[in-house]
Structure prediction request, 915 residues.
Amino acid sequence: MPALRLLNVTKRFGAIKALDDVTFEVKDREYLCVLGSTGSGKTTLLRSIAGILHPDDGDVYLDGEKVTEISAEERNAVYVPQTYALFPHMTILENVVFGPLAKNTSRGIAEETAGRMLKLVRLDKRADAYPNELSGGMQQRVALARGLASGAKLLLLDEPLGALDGRLRLELRTKLRKLAKESNLTVIHVTHDQEEAMTIGDRILVLRKGKLQQLGTPYHVYNRPEKIFVANFVGNTTFLEAIVKTRSKEGSTLRLREGLTVRVRDSSFETDEAVILSIREENTSIMPEPKGDEPNRLSGEVTAVHFLGSFIRYVVMLTNGDVIAARVPIKEVNTEINKGDWVSISFDPMNTHIYEYPTLGLQGELEAN
Amino acid sequence: MAIRLFESVMATLDKLSSRPKVKKVVYAFAVSFLISVILLPPVLGISFKLGLAEQVLSNPELVNRSEAAIFWSFIIALSVASLDLIAGLPLAWIISAGGSRWISILDALADIPFVIPTVALGFSTLLFWGKTGPVSVLGVIVPPGLLLVLLLHFAFSFPVIVRVMVGELMAHNTIYETAAKTLGARAFPIARTVTLPLLRPGLIAAFLLAFARSLSETGATVIVAGLFENGPVFIKNAKDAGLEGPMVLVSFTLIISSVAVFALIRLLGTRLKIPIKNVYPVPEAGLSSNRSVNIRNGVTLLVFGLFVLIPSIYITFPAIGALTDGTLQKAISGLGVWSSFWQSMTLSYVIAVIVTLINIVMGLPIAILIARKKLGKLATTLIDAVVNVPIVVPSVALGVSLGFFWRSFSFLPEFWILVFAHMTITYTYFVQAMAAAIEGIPEEMEETARTLGGRPFRVFRKIILPLTKYSFLSGSILVFTRSVDETGAATAVSQTLKTAPVLLVSWVKHQVIVTDSDIALGIAFLVLTSFASLLVLRLIVYRGKK
Prediction:
């Protein structure tokens, strides 16, 4: 039985649909990352699951039971906002016993549970401190201990690493997942950071304008993005407008602007159909000498070179005016390529995707809001 | 046993609060109270008697007097609020900069005219500027009349401006000033072009509060007015003379016009532009110099001392005299006029306790409704506007209307009519203090507490209440002190029962044969008991939290 199930959930704020007919399931003890940009409906989704907001349409099920009309305090789904919402007038221990006491547990048992949870997050020695005396990382651990002590089985984390600095974020990612797994929790973790979602999530759910775009494992979402938006949001991708020239069992040949041609593995589109070709930047190779335009080997001028530490990113303008980017691991860079150089760009037909041409145009499809 | 009973009651309330129906009933009850006790009585009371006002229209002399009184009410309020803003803003600047013990003392001193009952302020001002006052040595005597009313209103509205602006300046993020400084601007142009425009909402709020305080004040104004009449003094005189028609006319006009003027100032205030386009490098550099700052601070402190602080506390001298000239013994023995004084004091405090408790219980749900906008934007704005009516409308005019309304229920004893009148007058203070405090608590804290299993009432008492305890306390204190201090509405409503301030006004106006020592000591008792009750309240809260 899934721990959580949303069925056609819609939530409106005036004329805005913050959630639009969202349906999905989360398995027991699964760690699901919800990925989306600001305003995509991520927080509304969490708050609707927590019972803080009530959907206008659709239903929420927890452990098979319909909880749409049940109030937040009776759902056993703890919401942890980005700020952690630790009660500033209470000590760490008092914060953690709040949940058990609210659920009528005797003070002795509540304190014992809280002690165990604080030990689990290695903060038992700071039980008498106040939240403002702790670092951001410690506060996050208290928020988790507080959720665990309340007996919740479902933890709803809203950008839990958002308030932390870069290095700590990286460090806590894996710890957060480990703790959740050790405590047998089902977690829904909202983030706008694709790398974070890929690192922690058993599965990733991508949201855009309140609509579910794709739900799958990080590998699946990255390598088989079902929509242009997902391909753009997860990873670094070049998109080119094209027309299907020929198609066969082995794949299709696409015509780019000015007659340039490329071969792709996908053959699901009809001849003469307008499509969008997407190529991951890391799946694109760059060579210092132009060899002339031929299928999947296109020449162009380097318009920008970005040093990214372990990668170098080259932006190349093709002879037809299209722009394509290549991301090359620094150890594979043998020859220095500079802005203004003419180069050859190539890619494997197996590592490309094509999509139906969107009704709102490519730019309209790429916009997050 | 008692603890167990308390815990079981709390647990039951916790459970009940989870039921949507119970929540709806609580909110509906509080809104009904707001409409039926705070909004409708002032509106209906005066409407019942509008016929009486028509009779006045045939009497040109009374019409002229009424018009002049209303005119002067607004002129005084506008002038005083403007002058207070000019004089109070630099003091607020000095206090908010902080940095020394002297500034903390100055901060406390600035509140004095706010915590002393206005009746005391009135009598103190009368003595300070009078024939035997300290400035008479310099040949300066201000007899009762318009100028003395202006001086009085300037003094008691002053702390309102200072208090609001100190709060605004302390909460203001100075990053903008730092940015302006690094861009090469000097202190004065920064204040004019960056700080003041950013503080505009606070400036408007401070101006409106000072304006309202001046427009509404009755007790002290009656003391220093002499033959001069503004709206409230006219109403008091009309009531004493038994002229119901003029009383209704002026009350009605004051209620309508004060609401209209407030709405207008609010509307125009948001459009008011502080001139920031031009910069005058040379003169403004001069104004930014240390010398200019020292001169400005000196003048600010002089104005504060001479026109606000000393006139407010001057009453201490005759009060000290009363301790040694036998008045104290007379007062303690409760003989003669002192018998009615102690009765009035008891009445004032009993009313204040009842009013504070009812306003807390009835005001809390409304404060939550406003802070959390639970009924939507439009309804919240409407409720907020209704809540503010009692502080916008002059209390004596409100009292006239409330008196008419509640007296129409012939079974209602005068005591309860007084309670209702005080309740209306003081309702705003607790609601606004709590609404602002609750608004300051992130909603997600409540939400998280709910998802941890906390039922609404438990979340309120364990999270919201402790985090808003100071506002809860200050809101309650404001209601309590405002009730003890209330003169205007109490004057308009009372028939046989007299609260302490009403009695003291009649003493000062020599409607009863008393000496200056009697008056000074009576006022000193009012001030001291007021302070003592505040102290007790603070101690109770402090110990409770320990």
